[in-house]
Amino acid sequence: MAGSNTGTRRQRPNILITGTPGTGKSTTAAALAEATNFRHICVGDLVKEKNLHEGWDDKFECHIINEDLVIDELEDIMQGGGIIVDYHGCDFFPERWFDRVVVLQTENSVLYDRLTKRGYSGTKLSNNLECEIFQVLLEEARDSYKEGIVTALQSNTVEDISNNVASLADWIGSLRPC
Ligand SMILES: Nc1ncnc2c1ncn2[C@@H]1O[C@H](COP(=O)(O)OP(=O)(O)O)[C@@H](O)[C@H]1O
């Protein structure tokens, strides 16, 4: 049964897809949601849509997320299971929300191309590349969740996306009651 890691009674698992910006979280989460009929929640979009922030950070060129508001917004939704959350951070979510935490990783030259295409430059570009080089999100995930539920997956090619989605969909299928 889903939720066995957390002691919850969810019929379907919740999955967190995290990683440095540009590693393919949204693309992977959307494809997995389509394959499984799960609901994809992109926390970055949610923060903008529902104003769950405290303004704009000029230095890092992003919204200053209000973590408490995000948790309040999602708490009830997460109880039902079947949610795929994507966000470039993972240490502030309640541990009990997730049955599986996936950290996407991308080779630096590939990530550089993706981020420059997205218009990142200067400090924002170098901060994100460093974040990937030093595996900041993998360490954050390992510090925040039980070892057995954290998986690092490569996300360099379109084939990687298909393989990652297929293996996560298989895992979800394997949890379904007979
Ligand atoms: N594994 C991959 N192979 C090829 N292109 C990818 C891959 N992952 C992401 N991309 C491309 O990189 C860009 C950023 O992907 P996105 O899913 O928005 O990343 P994130 O949500 O982690 O910021 C998109 O143009 C997407 O199509």
Automatic annotation (TrEMBL):
Subcellular location field: Cytoplasm; Nucleus
Region of interest (Disordered), residue spans: 1-22
Catalytic activity as recorded in UniProt: AMP + ATP = 2 ADP; ATP + H2O = ADP + phosphate + H(+)
Residue positions binding ATP: 22, 24-27, 118
One GO term of the biological process aspect: unidimensional cell growth
Protein name: Adenylate kinase isoenzyme 6 homolog
Matches recorded under SUPFAM superfamilies: P-loop containing nucleoside triphosphate hydrolases (SSF52540)
EC number: 2.7.4.3
Source species: Arabis alpina (Alpine rock-cress)
Listed InterPro entries: Adenyl_kinase_AK6 (IPR020618), P-loop_NTPase (IPR027417)
Class of enzymatic activity (EC top level): transferase
Origin superkingdom: Eukaryota
GO MF term set: AMP kinase activity; ATP binding; ATP hydrolysis activity
Region (LID) location: 117-127
Function: Broad-specificity nucleoside monophosphate (NMP) kinase that catalyzes the reversible transfer of the terminal phosphate group between nucleoside triphosphates and monophosphates. Has also ATPase activity. Involved in the late cytoplasmic maturation steps of the 40S ribosomal particles, specifically 18S rRNA maturation. While NMP activity is not required for ribosome maturation, ATPase activity is. Associates transiently with small ribosomal subunit protein uS11. ATP hydrolysis breaks the interaction with uS11.
Record keywords: ATP-binding, Cytoplasm, Kinase, Nucleotide-binding, Nucleus, Ribosome biogenesis, rRNA processing, Transferase
